[in-house]
Design brief:
CATH architecture: 3-Layer(aba) Sandwich
Distance between the termini: 40 Å
CATH topology: Rossmann fold
Strand order of the largest sheet: 3-2-1-4-5-6-9-10
Helix content: 25-40%
Oligomer: single chain
Strand content: 15-25%
Length: about 300
């Protein structure tokens, strides 16, 4: 009978006894937080890991103890030029992947734009990964997987394909974050639909609440505003802090341990597939709009239009 894991499970527990020798895995954002922990545990179990990072020097310092099976490559998700250069380099090398974990991201940024003119959170968290993953899809091995890091913050808002850059709607830090995290889920839903016949599956995961650099934009004013918001008035358990080892556990569980047919096209949290919940507040579960296949198809088409590239 498979081991049952939950919210306090760690990466070491999830991968206990698992041999990843001969596996090759791409992880974005391995310069801090759960990205570093994800790379560490994968290498510790024998995998070859490619860590895609914006700041190579910072990543070298953060991952110095991980070992020789971690290779770093440059990737700035807020620049499609950088994303395409990274994907071109990976394609030129031609080495295939058993798993891609789209881990990197930003949260609750002040209103700004990426190098290409996209709202920062949507452009970085979704569009950057959308282009990277789709450009290297030929490197996915049969029976490989894509794991998109989403968040319980997807419950703040659905995507808005009519106004993705907040040109006509009021910008809020967590409204934008919610859009981008919903996009991560919808991207996984449509990617899974398109590729499951070839044995390639995709899922999105909520790592939990972890004290990492991701929260660096959370000023006291923003925290107070979020606390006062009815949609963000969760029970204390919803914001129970996890360690990086607990936060990265769902990523490796969904990417390696869980059955592919169990997680394909789904949203996972605490090392299990989440139930649909449209209740108010930042509670557990996934909102129905996030896994709606028609919304996922519409987001894919809009994303192609925005990046001027069809996949």
């Amino acid at each position: 009978m498979p081991e049952i894991f939950g919210e306090t499970s760690t990466t070491d527990e999830v991968l206990a006894g698992v041999d990843l020798a001969g596996k090759r895995i791409l992880v974005t954002g391995v310069s801090a937080g759960i990205g570093v922990e994800t790379a560490r545990i994968l290498v510790a179990h024998g995998a070859e890991v490619v860590g895609a990072v914006r700041d190579l020097n910072k990543a070298r310092k953060a991952t110095g103890q991980i070992g020789e099976r971690l290779q770093l490559v440059e990737l700035n998700l807020a620049s499609l030029k950088s994303v395409r250069a990274c994907s071109d380099a990976l394609l030129a090398k031609g080495e295939k992947f058993d798993l891609v974990i789209a881990n990197a991201g930003v949260m609750a940024c002040p209103f700004d734009h990426t190098e290409d003119g996209f709202e920062t959170q949507f452009g970085t968290n979704h569009l950057g990964h959308f282009v990277l993953v789709n450009r290297i899809v030929s490197l996915f091995k049969p029976h490989s997987r894509l794991v998109n890091l989403s968040s319980g913050g997807h419950r703040f808002s659905d995507t808005n394909i009519d106004d993705p850059n907040f040109e006509h709607t009021e910008y809020t830090e967590f409204g934008a974050y919610g859009r981008s995290k919903t996009a991560n889920i919808q991207f996984a839903v449509e990617f899974d639909r398109r590729h499951k016949a070839a044995g390639i599956r995709a899922t999105a995961v909520h790592p939990g609440v972890i004290a990492t650099e991701l929260s660096r934009h959370l000023t006291p004013e923003i925290r107070e505003r979020i606390s006062a918001s009815s949609v963000a008035s969760p029970p204390a358990s919803a914001f129970k802090m996890k360690t990086p080892a607990q936060g990265a556990a769902t990523s490796v569980w969904a990417g390696i341990v869980a059955a592919a047919e169990t997680i394909g096209g789904k949203y996972c949290e605490d090392c299990h597939v989440a139930e649909v919940s449209d209740a108010e507040g930042i509670t557990g579960g996934v909102r129905s709009y996030a896994i709606d296949p028609e919304r996922a198809k519409a987001l894919w088409a809009k994303s192609e239009q925005m990046v001027a590239e069809r996949f």
